[in-house]
Design a protein that fits this description.
Structural class: alpha/beta
Keywords: FAD, Flavoprotein, Oxidoreductase
Number of strands: 14
Pfam family, one: DAO
Distance between the termini: 19 Å
Family: Belongs to the DAMOX/DASOX family.
Largest sheet: 14 strands, mixed
GO cellular component, one term: cytoplasm
Order of helices and strands: EHEHHHEEEHEEHEEEEEHEEH
InterPro entries: DAO, FAD-dep_OxRdtase
Length: 339
């Protein structure tokens, strides 16, 4: 291994850019190049509301690894929150309610209820905030990460330390050779990894949201049927959502939009006065388990980090930290054959 390894990162969403940032911190003096055919607002990460609330469908290879990723991510975002750069990087605190008319388990989350500063059952007075017919509810305090800020902020950071951003689609790992010889490659291609790795376990889960102008909304709300209201920065609130398994449809659907508005207006009637700013559609890259592991492909040392589903923004740092640890071990090794 050279003193200044050449390292490639495929993908410029929240996972890829976080990996690149951590690589520069762990591999001091390394030459980092990020390859992607989509940057910033074109990425799936940009569509996400970004609240720290991983669903119970998020899984690593073991329960211990899953918790390691989540806890590592929580520490990473909290460390940013404590800095003067928090607002610029798109990280802020937010409180949230989750209500259900049907199932108590909807309002609980074993992955984070012992991690967040507050996660409790709502009291009688708080039922007044809930839609009529609500039987169960929880309140929790958490964080929000807005990728509209975090992605360009992080890109500027890594470029400032010498990283290169290359706009182009990587069809296969061998094609990287035309850009130079890389000692290590991080595959953070999201849904693109389905074709890059011929991974049939990776499937899209279609999401659609509305962005509305509602500066009076300061608290997040969750409800049945994947209903959510999440306040971001500058008075923009995300209303959702849908979760359509194995759908590749990137087109706006007016029926989905109408259903989202009906559910969100029922939960928070004041939203009827909110201006609709935009409609967004994205394909979440879902895989069980999320893939964070090493592989030697045609002599190229590769560390995969993809398949986060709808929880990539919140869990990117923990999985990225794990991927970078694996990468460091791989760089130190002399393995030449497929693992």
């Amino acid at each position: 291994m050279s003193n200044q390894p050449n390292i490639a990162v495929i993908g410029a969403g929240v996972v890829g850019l976080t990996v690149a940032k951590l690589v520069q911190e762990q591999f001091v003096g390394s030459n980092v190049t990020v390859f992607a055919d989509k940057f910033y607002e074109e990425t799936t990460s940009h569509v996400a509301a970004g609240i720290f609330r991983p669903g119970t469908s998020f899984k690593g290879p073991t329960v211990e690894t899953t918790k390691k990723w989540i806890h590592g991510s929580w520490r990473y975002w909290n460390d940013i929150l404590k800095t003067p750069e928090a607002t610029k990087s798109g990280v802020k605190s937010v409180s949230a309610y989750i209500f259900s008319k049907e199932n108590e388990h909807v309002t609980r989350n074993y992955l984070i209820d012992d991690l967040l500063p507050i996660y409790r059952t709502i009291n009688e007075s708080e039922y007044k905030l809930a839609p009529k017919g609500t039987k169960y509810g929880s309140y929790f305090s958490t964080l929000l990460i807005e990728c509209g800020r975090y992605l360009p902020y992080t890109a500027d950071l890594i470029v400032g330390k010498g990283a290169k951003l290359v706009n182009g689609k990587i069809e296969n790992f061998a094609s990287l050779s035309k850009f130079g010889n890389f000692d290590l490659v991080f595959n953070c291609a999201g849904l693109g990894a389905k074709y890059l790795c011929n991974d049939h376990d990776l499937v899209p889960i279609r999401g659609q949201v509305l962005k509305v102008k509602a500066p009076w909304v300061k608290t997040a709300f969750y409800g049945d049927y994947d209903t959510y209201i999440i306040p971001g920065f500058d008075g923009i609130v995300t209303l959702g959502g849908v979760r359509q398994y194995d759908s590749y449809n990137l087109n706006y659907c007016r029926f989905d939009a109408a259903a989202i508005m009906e559910r969100c207006y029922d939960m928070l009637p004041s939203l009827k006065d909110a201006e609709v700013v935009s409609h967004k559609v994205g394909l979440r890259p879902h895989r069980t388990p999320v893939r964070v592991e090493a592989e030697i492909i045609n002599g190229v040392k590769v560390v995969h980090c993809y398949g986060h589903g709808g929880y990539g923004v919140m869990t990117a740092p923990g999985t990225a930290q794990h991927a970078v640890e694996i990468g460091l071990d791989l760089l130190k090794s002399n393995i030449k054959n497929k693992l």
